[in-house]
Amino acid sequence: MGVIVNKENNLDNELTRRIDADLREKMSKASKVEKGKKDVDLAEDADYVKDLKKTSKYGWVWVLLVIFTLILLIALGMSFQNR
């Protein structure tokens, strides 16, 4: 019984080593960058990022307006609740 379990473990280990070697090879092929070329950020090349604009220097004003509006709505809700 112990011999069968040992053989199965050896087969599992061999399979794991093969998968690991294959994944390492694929990763090294995918990550190779030509000499002198800057490392490419694939997130910047994604389709959903292409039409986005950068936030202007006044983007923080919108955040403050949203926070102020939420505080105002909560205050109004509490005042109507107390009537």
Q: Can you tell me about this structure?
A:
The chain has two helices and no strands. With 83 residues, the chain is an all-alpha fold. It has one domain (2-33, 55-81). The model has no long low-confidence stretch (mean pLDDT 78).
Helix proportion of residues, in percent?
A: 55-70%
Give a count of the beta strands, DSSP E runs of length 2 or more.
0
Strand proportion, as a percent range, falls in under 5%
Structural class: mainly alpha
- From the alpha carbons, calculate the radius of gyration and give it in angstroms: 29 Å
Distance between the termini: 79 Å
Shape label: elongated
How would you spell out the order of helices and strands?
HH
Mean pLDDT: 78
Q: Helical segment tally?
A: 2
The main β sheet shows up as:
none
Number of domains: 1
Runs with pLDDT <50, length 5+? none
